[in-house]
Write a structure and sequence with these properties.
Order of helices and strands: HHHHHHHHEHEEHEH
Number of strands: 4
Helix content: 55-70%
Shape: elongated
Low-confidence stretches: none
Distance between the termini: 45 Å
Number of helices: 11
Radius of gyration: 24 Å
Oligomer: single chain
Number of domains: 2
Strand content: 5-15%
Length: 296
Amino acid sequence: MGERVKTFIKEIPILTFGMFIGALAVHFFLIPSKLIVGSITGLSIVINLLTSIPLPVLIFIINSFLLVLSYFLIGKEFGIKTVYSALILSPLLAILEKLWPMSQSLMQDQWLDLICFVLILSFSQAILFRRNASTGGLDIIAKIVNKYFHVDLGSSVTIAGAIICCTAIFVYDVRTVIIGLIGTYLNGLILEHFMIGFNSRKRVCVISNDYQLIRKFIIEDMKRGATLYPIKGGLEAEGKYEIESLMTRNEFSYLMEFIKKEQIDAFITAGTVSEIYGNLGIKGIKSKPKVLLENK
């Protein structure tokens, strides 16, 4: 069995969970409230009302075209994962319909339904985009825009969704279209917020006489990279070394725990980095370093 196949099998639970979250948003908020938020389903509804072509046929044709497009324009991995995600949506919706049939809107207010739908859907999209997959449909267009025009995913979703929303003016009233545009805009903002949260890292800078001990912990125990900078203090003009490293929030807490445990005198600054490009093959750790589990 190839490495890619093994990786895909391992990611199936995460992809399924992400789509389940999305299915919850659609079942409990989108369908009952009859919201028109920029999506392929929304576009299909508009075309259906204008041409009388059956809605399932339209959704199938458009999604199939976009899935093929994603395979060639984005990549094999993204295409296969998105196909899987798209295929399990209908069964998930059928299960939810069986367990919790919805005869009316859950919140009984279109604006509240819109907010709940966008929040939950954005979280679902962020999970899937994080795994190089998508919910299909509009997300594929957003991913293509993101890849070839270097527009962040949140803005890509907003742009693609807004264009689709505007087509609804031919069959719906202005109020419905405006609600859809607002929902699409919020979707882009919230998605970007979740993506930044998933991708953000801490840039940690440490100045200490025990820099070698800290460097060893970062590199050997936390499996992270570190850079040493020779510096000179402005007050005493004394030469020192500053360690800089990028790490997750959990890893930063491990570092602080280590410094406290070893009673190291250090000056530490930390800031959040939302975008990181490039990969040096250093992935970090998934659990607490053994050195912190040992009793001193």
